[in-house]
Amino acid sequence: MDRAKLDALMDAEGLDALLASSPENIYYTSRFPVPLTAGNRGLSLLLRTSEAVAVLLPKGRAPILLCTVGLAGLADVHSPGMETRHSGTGMHIEWPEGTERVVNAPTPAENLSATLKELGLDRGRLGIEMAPISAVTLGHLQAKLPNLSFADARPAFFKPRQVKTRAEIDRMRHANRVNTAAIRAALDVIRDDAIEQDVLEAFKSKIREMGCDWESAALGAGPQSGESYNIAGDYVLNPGDAVRFDVTAVHEFYFSDLSRCATVGDPPAEVRRLYDALFEAQQAMMAAVRPGVPASELFRIGVEKVKAAGYGSYARGNMGHGLGLGHYEEPFITPDNDTPLETGMTLAIEAPYYVVGKYGLNVENNVLVTEAGCEVLDDDLTLDLFHCG
């Protein structure tokens, strides 16, 4: 955690404290291991009954872990020496009609309220992660802390997380090694008459074998590859089908996000031509990476390259994004994001193209921004259009 940057951002935003309540920011500020599953990601864990957890960061003071008694053992193991304040294991229920009931006080909200009052912050300005918090939860906090004002803290967390430490980069290197090994295992299964789901299971099996996890695993074959996010099913592969991987691997909470493409046998001429255009565009974006270049410049280069190759209608909302503790992080490679790249940022740089009902292709690397340009983190598996079966 870059505490100096967080304090500076609090000063700039006029905040007295920050409250981390999403899995990735809880881990970033405390090393407390909330599982980064699709079910937890993007959720506030502040008021979750027996597993409620959050981290309070008062400006100029050491962070405080707020968690239920049932999580005390985990806190001792993963956040040793960190001040921890416990709530009860009561249940917070949001009923369909919008009412709520809390049993077995003290609740997590009461724990937060008491801590803020003790620190003299109950009349200050608290930065919270607005996006994951429901209206009911926010109303609950406002009722407990009527003199406290709230502001969205997610930008304050995103900015310090953009530049990675050596330890974070090492975790991402390992995640990429696992991801490429799993893609390679899945490529070995691709052949005429293979079932789409079996290809995906080969990928997942290798991830598990290597002791890691995944958050999303989009794999599509034939017409399904033209869907931007396809869940593999019982489709039977045919000669000439394109197979598109857009998959993640997670090692110690840090992400790899890669795309690779293959065909069953030799590729049709139109698939080969499109893949070559996407490859050249993605490589041009990679070549432009260096400190100081705006993220929007990478977007412009990539889109213009694809259009110049004969695909004049090509349009995208983004051509990649940052990643780390989150699958999608700043800086996003979009036409209006002028955030300058910095040494130590990690990016997923991609050039996707989807022809709905026919095929979809994507070329994607994970890179580390360096003083000289960028270092590819997944260079043990090439960006070839693989011919399988």
Structure commentary:
The termini are far apart. By secondary structure, the chain is an alpha/beta fold. The chain contains 10 helices and 16 strands. The protein folds into 2 domains: 3-161, 3-Layer(aba) Sandwich (Creatine Amidinohydrolase, Chain A, domain 1), CATH 3.40.350.10; 166-388, Creatine Amidinohydrolase. It has helices at residues 3-13, 23-30, 72-78, 108-118, 135-144, 154-161, 166-187, 196-209, 269-288, 295-308, and strands spanning 17-20, 53-58, 64-68, 83-87, 92-94, 100-102, 125-128, 149-152, 217-221, 242-251, 254-264, 320-322, 346-355, 359-370, 373-376, 385-388. Helix 1 runs antiparallel to helix 6 (154-161) and helix 7 runs antiparallel to helix 8 (196-209). Strand 10 and strand 11 form a beta hairpin. Residues 37-43, 90-95 and 99-105 have low confidence and may be disordered. Strands 4-3-2-1-7-8 form a 6-stranded mixed sheet. The radius of gyration is 23 Å and the shape is elongated. Helix content is 32%, strand content 24%.
